[in-house]
UniProtKB/TrEMBL annotation:
The name this protein goes by in its record: GrpB family protein
Listed SUPFAM superfamilies: Nucleotidyltransferase (SSF81301)
InterPro entries: GrpB/CoaE, NT_sf
Organism this protein belongs to: Bacillus salitolerans
Domain of life: Bacteria
Highest classification ranks of the organism: Bacteria, Bacillati, Bacillota, Bacilli, Bacillales
Pfam family, one: GrpB
Length: 166
C-alpha cells in the first residue's frame, strides 16, 4: 500500500533542473533527432509534486523502435505502465529525484505530456485546481490519487487551451 505525499516544486527545483539537463544530454547523445522535454509537476514552478521528475522523449514513428532499444539500455522499463506501438515508459528509481521517461511518437495518442505542462503553465486556474486535487489526496492511497488525476487530465483534454496546442 503506497501513500502519496507532495511537496512544493520550488523545494527541489535546482535538483530537478540539474537532473533533467543531464538526462536530456544523455538521451540526445544517443537519439539526436529526439525532442526531449521536462514535463510533469516538477516542470511547473510553485506547484505541488511527488518529488520525482518526468521527461518526455518524442520521436517520429520510424525512430520509435531504435528509441525503445536505446532507452532500454539507459533505464528500466516501467512494467506498471501501458505499453503500445506508440508509447513506452521507463524509470530510474535509484537516482534523486526518481526519474520517469515517457517515450512517445509525435502526434500519437500518448503525445500529450508536454501539452498538459503547457496548459498548466499558461492557466493559473487549472494549476490551482490540480494542486487542490493533490491536497485532497495527500497521505491517501496512490491508486486513488492516480484515478482522480487521470480524470482531471481527461477533462483537461477537452479544454480549448489543450486542443489548440499542436
Amino acid at each position: 500500500m503506497t501513500r502519496v505525499n507532495f511537496i512544493n516544486s520550488s523545494q527541489i527545483y535546482e535538483n530537478t533542473e540539474k537532473t533533467f539537463f543531464s538526462h536530456k544530454m544523455l538521451i540526445k547523445e544517443r537519439l539526436p533527432e529526439a525532442d526531449v522535454q521536462h514535463v510533469g509537476s516538477s516542470a511547473i514552478p510553485n506547484s505541488l509534486t511527488k518529488g520525482d521528475i518526468d521527461i518526455q522523449v518524442r520521436v517520429v514513428s520510424d525512430q520509435f523502435p531504435e528509441a525503445v532499444k536505446v532507452l532500454s539500455l539507459l533505464y528500466k522499463l516501467n512494467e506498471g505502465s501501458v505499453k503500445t506501438e506508440t508509447f513506452r515508459a521507463f524509470k530510474d528509481d535509484s537516482i534523486d529525484p526518481p526519474l520517469g521517461v515517457q517515450l512517445t511518437i509525435i502526434d500519437s495518442e500518448f503525445d500529450f505530456f508536454w501539452k498538459f505542462r503547457d496548459v498548466l503553465l499558461l492557466n493559473h486556474q487549472y494549476r490551482f485546481e490540480y494542486d487542490k486535487l493533490k491536497k485532497k489526496y495527500e497521505g491517501k492511497e496512490m491508486d486513488e490519487y492516480r484515478e482522480a488525476k487521470n480524470e482531471f487530465f481527461l477533462n483537461m483534454m477537452k479544454t480549448p487551451e489543450f486542443n489548440k496546442l499542436k
